[in-house]
UniProtKB/TrEMBL annotation:
It holds the Pfam family LpxC. PANTHER family: UDP-3-O-ACYL-N-ACETYLGLUCOSAMINE DEACETYLASE 1, MITOCHONDRIAL-RELATED (PTHR33694:SF1). It is an enzyme of class 3 (hydrolase). Zn(2+) binds at H78, H235, D239. InterPro entries: Ribosomal_Su5_D2-typ_SF (IPR020568), UDP-acyl_GlcNac_deAcase (IPR004463), UDP-acyl_GlcNac_deAcase_C (IPR011334), UDP-acyl_N-AcGlcN_deAcase_N (IPR015870). Its cofactor is Zn(2+). This is UDP-3-O-acyl-N-acetylglucosamine deacetylase. The gene is lpxC. HAMAP family: LpxC. Transmembrane segments: none annotated. The keyword Methyltransferase does not apply. The active site is at H262.
Length: 306
């Protein structure tokens, strides 16, 4: 069955790029509602924005969704990953600004809040998107691929010049709470040179060493260092799960990302839905639902480091 929150849960923080204070509340929603954002700071016009692949505006640094009236919400990937990874299918997310709070740079605080609020089952079956044939998009030396599988799996490869990151590879089947245990506490990361460039462009104004992993060559500048030796690739997988949940349902298939980012994953979804015979929507029986991301997750699986 589909799930929603048992009660509302509120978060406060600042936007990573805007630097502005923001308050966000996740509310329960009815079955088949999906995930929607509502801009509470906008008083006139359409302030509802669907969390959906076809309203994503192409940006390199985050995932930004925009409705037909031009109302947007950005940096949604971490909260979307938390919803997918805890098995929330229906929710209304109210936010009083244009950007989701960055919190500690990971999805752990969102996961903690969702699990504390608790989930309730709804009297409608979960639908999933089953991948039937391979779909790939490439851009230079970056690529993203979906291939058939009877579960959801994410494989990712990254390659950075900075020795503090370097080459990292990881593969995870996203079942049995693996997102919460393995990925949710991994923080966004960047190079010091990128931080300087973003600040010069008026971006990352809310970023600091407490909500991002900043590296410079072979040095990790953030206090306390890394939460995982391969935290960078784990965070890329976290982002991918959040961006893939914009498909509107969990995916049964294998995602392979090679140096991929937000815009390439969105391009992959667009290619998927434009390719005849590449997918089908299925109602999940109890056996399939039990291996979806978020099924059976409980509080004890949240990493202590977060």
């Amino acid at each position: 069955m589909q799930n929603t929150l048992r009660t509302s849960v509120r978060f406060t923080g600042q936007g990573l790029h805007s630097g502005e204070a923001v308050e966000l509340t996740i509310h329960p929603a009815s079955a088949d509602y999906g995930i929607w954002f509502k801009r509470t700071d906008i008083l006139l016009g359409d302030r509802m924005v669907p969390a959906r692949w076809d309203v994503v505006e192409q940006t390199a640094l985050c995932t930004r969704i925009v409705n037909a009236a031009g109302v947007s919400v950005s940096t949604i990937e971490h909260i979307m990953a938390a919803l997918a990874g805890t098995g929330v299918h229906n929710a209304l997310i109210e936010v009083d600004g244009p950007e989701v709070p960055i919190l500690d740079g990971s999805a752990a605080d969102f996961v903690r809040g969702i699990l504390k609020a608790g989930l309730i089952k709804q009297h409608r079956p979960v639908r999933a998107i089953e991948i039937l044939k391979p779909v790939t998009v490439t851009r230079g030396d970056a690529s993203a691929t979906l291939t058939p599988a009877d579960h959801m799996q994410i494989d990712f490869h990254i390659d950075f010049e900075d020795r503090a990151i370097g080459v990292q590879d990881k593969s995870l089947v996203m079942a049995n709470g693996s997102f919460v245990r393995e990925l949710c506490d991994s923080r966004t990361f960047c190079r010091q040179a990128d931080v300087d460039a973003m600040h010069a462009q008026g971006l990352a104004l809310g970023g600091n060493l407490e909500n991002a992993v900043v590296v410079d060559g072979d040095k990790v500048l953030s206090p306390g260092g890394l939460r995982h030796k391969d935290e960078a690739v784990r965070h890329k997988m976290l982002d991918a799960l959040g961006d893939l949940f914009l498909a509107g349902a969990p995916i049964l298939g294998k995602y392979t990302g090679c140096r991929a980012g937000h815009s390439l994953t969105n391009e992959l979804l667009r290619q998927l839905f434009a390719t005849p015979g590449a997918f089908r929507v299925v109602e999940c029986d109890s056996e399939t639902a039990a291996i979806l991301p978020g099924a059976g997750v409980h509080w004890a699986e949240i990493p202590a480091v977060a």
